[in-house]
Every structure is written in C-alpha cells, then in structure tokens.
Amino acid sequence: MPAMLVGDHVMVALDDLAGLFQLNVREDVLAGGVTVGYKGKTVILTPGQALASAAGRLISLPAPPSRDGRRWLVPVEFISRALAVVYDSKLDVRKNARMVLVGDIRVPQITVRQEVLGPQTRVTFAVSPRTPYTLSQEPTCILVRFDADALDVTLPTFAPEGLLQSIRLSDPNSTISIDLGPRFGSFRALFVPQEDGGGQLLVDLMSGPAEQAPPPTPRGDVPQLPVPPAPETVPPMIQPAAGGLRTVVIDPGHGGEETGTKGAAGAQEKEITLAVARRLKASLESRLGVRVLLTRDGDQAMALDERAALANNNKADLFISLHANASIRKEVSGAQIYYLAADQAGEEARKATSSRQTLPTVGGGSREIEMILWEMAQLRYLSQSASLAGAFEEQFRGRVRLNPRPVQQAPLRVLAGANMPAVLVEMGFLTNPDEEPQLVSNAYQNTIAQALLDGILRYRDLADRPKMTPSQEPSPTPSPDTARRRQ
C-alpha cells in the first residue's frame, strides 16, 4: 500500500486501508473526528490526539491522525494496534520489512550474521519463532529452506572471502542461499533452541582438506609461543553432552568509551576481549550445544553490576569475564585467573550471604523465600569458582603463557554479584612488547579460546564426578605447584 513519511512516522491513508480491509470510513464534521467501521464494530479517531477508541478500548498510537488534502492519514501502527481489535483475522505489521500480514500466515523473522572464526566461517540464523527447516548442498551453494509462506529476513553485508561469497534470498521466497567460495570443503550445522520460543541455526563452513593455515609470522626477535595448527582449534561438532551446564555467560571486559588497557602498538583491551569471547561462544555452541550469552556483542559500555545481573537473570551456570592486563613493568607477562576474595573473612561472611524471610502470598497464606545480598552472592560459590580457576590453569599450561602466580584472589566487583561459579581471566599483558602482538593474532586468540573451552569441559567433568568417601580417595604425592596452590 502507498505510505509516506510525516516527521518520524510512517503514515498510510485511511482510504487505502478501506479498500484493502473492506472498511467504512466516515468523517464526523460536527464532532471533528473520524469513525472507521468494520462489520458493526467501530474505531474512533480524534485529530490532534494520539489515541483511538477501538470497540470501547482506548488504544495509544505513536502519532495522531492528520489531514493530507481531503485524505486522513494514520500511523501504520494503527493496523496492528487499533484495527486488529475489531478485525476478524489476525493482523501483524512488520514495519522494517514493510509487510502487513493478514490471517495465520507463517512469516518468521530471521536475522542472518556472518563472522570469520579463525580457519572457518560461521553463518548464524536467529529465527523467531522456531520454524522447521531443511539444509541441502548444491554445487555452488548451501540452501536453507524454511517451512514458511515468506521470510522477514535481515541479511548481512560483507566482502566476499575464500569460504563465503554471499548470502541472499532465493526461489522460492522462503529459501536463503549461502553462496560458497573457492576454498569451501565441507559444512556442519547445529540448531540451538532459545527459551523465548526462537532459536539459532549455526552453519559452519570449513576449508577443503588441502587447505592449510599459514604459520604465524614472526615479529623480529619476539619469541612465539607454540600454537596448535589451525584445524585443531576447531573442535568437531558433537551432540550436547550430559552434565549440569545449560547456560554460560561470557563477559568481554570494557567497551564503548572505556577501552581498557592499550598496548604500545595500539592494541585495545576491549577489542581483544570481544574477539576471544566470540570465538569461545562459537566453540561452546558447536561443541556442547549449550546456550551462550555475551554481556556485550558490540562496542558498547556496560556497568559492572549489569554484567553479573545479566548472568543472574538468565540463570547462568558459569560466568567468565575476559580481560587483558597491564603493568608499569614491561617485563611482567603471562595469563592470570582470578576468583573472588571476600572483603569479610570466615564463617561470619558466609552466614551473611542470605537470609530467609516470610512474605504474604496472593489469596492468603505466606511463603518463606531466601533473600541473597547482592554484595555477598558470590561467597556461596567460592569453592566452585576456585575449581574453575584451577581447571583453566591446568588447560593453559603448555599452550598459553602463564604468570608465575597464575591463580589469585581479588575483591573484584564484576564477580561479587554473580550467583554462580565465576572467574575473571587476564589473558596476558598488553604492556609486554612480546605479548601484545600475540594477543591480537587470530592464531593465539583461537588457542586461548580452545584452552578456555577445555577448561570448562574439565570443570564440568570434575563437577559431575561422584564424590568419594575419604577411604576411597587416592592419596598421590602432590607436585610442588599443587602444594604451593594449597598453601
């Protein structure tokens, strides 16, 4: 239907709506209003008021009706907000897609995203609501056919690369084509359902068997840590494993105007943390099929308390905050893993973590609920957080350079409010001239993400292992490193 922009609002003419929806539009000259009728039901509009009365219900509109010559204009939202109240078929306005859906028509909203993750390229389809689909590979493309009448789709724009040339709508109009590049060898796919009724379809494109990742380029006399070959950093996609991990929240530190640490060559902490977070998210989703949330998926600022709150509100099982370190001494180097050090010590602090209160319930009676103090939420998980930090240290050794003091405790605000096992990982020192170029390299970021993934797997296996009685526990001689950590 014809539409026009009036100020910031998309407006349509009531005359055009009358022809499309069999409406009776009548102007009340005396009252100065407009009546829209449909099968004995009416919607009343008043000039200058962003309100409508639909079958006796008061409906708000983003803008009041206005005149354009002899025609009355209303905001396009009038269809879904006011007309839908009196109409006998379902009405849905997709403003961005310029669609009006009438009846039980199936048009899922799909947002497609493309990202390069080391030696592979991932295409993510965010689908709402959940919609059946089929995947098929053609000589030059992969076709994703959705069981729908049409698609309300947002496609990404990007420069063609070796694995992926383009993503476009195809025939029929419920099909999306992933056009493949010359380096494509194979693909794998996984659908991750979401609690809101939608889901994510993850399609990973991988190079052919002859494709080899180039070795990292040495930088002068900078020593290069051993990095596994690129294919080893991409774990095979398997079925979700049993265990207590359902949701993991990854927190890329800093963002927006808060850039964090900055290296001498210009590397910014906020960019490194987001890059590694995206790699870890992709690995967790493809390897375990767990739900993974990022506290930020772009360059935006976020308060420390909001980061832990996101994890709490989504009932996360783990919270992992990623950072890059700094020191006034350039020679200081190596990754460090932190878990919370309580400001109060001992049993007294643990007793203060929660209290039980009796509150009245609707309809009479009462119920007892547990109230957790925000500042003390993490205290209940200190032992689990210490185990997670230890699992990361174990998996970092031999792969990621570690600081001489790899596991430490500190009173970190971002961890204090997390109501689940939580750690903060300092991946290295940007102020160290050897570590800065490594932290920005794709190969080293993949290595860190793989070590973090293996640490999570190790922690999960330890948490799922049945507890033994003291008589069953083995008593090996501790290594010097282990003995030091226990002190």
Please give a handful of descriptors for the protein shown:
single chain; 487 residues; alpha+beta; Copper Amine Oxidase, Chain A, domain 1; Immunoglobulin-like; Aminopeptidase; 3 domains; elongated
What overall form do the CA principal axes indicate?
A: elongated
Spatial ordering of strands, largest sheet: 22-21-23-28-24-27
Which CATH architecture of the largest domain is right?
A: 3-Layer(aba) Sandwich
> What's the structural domain tally?
3
Strand content: 25-35%
Helix content: 10-25%
Largest sheet: 6 strands, mixed
**CATH homology superfamily of the largest domain:** Zn-dependent exopeptidases
Topology, number of strands: 28
Number of helices: 10
Going by helix content, strand content and strand pairing, the class is alpha+beta
| CATH fold field value of the largest domain | Aminopeptidase
Residue stretches low in confidence (pLDDT < 50, at least 5 long) are 211-242, 344-364, 366-374, 467-487
Average pLDDT over all residues: 81
State the oligomer: single chain
Query: What's the CATH class of the largest domain, please?
Result: Alpha Beta
Terminal-residue CA separation: 74 Å
Cα gyration radius (Å): 28 Å
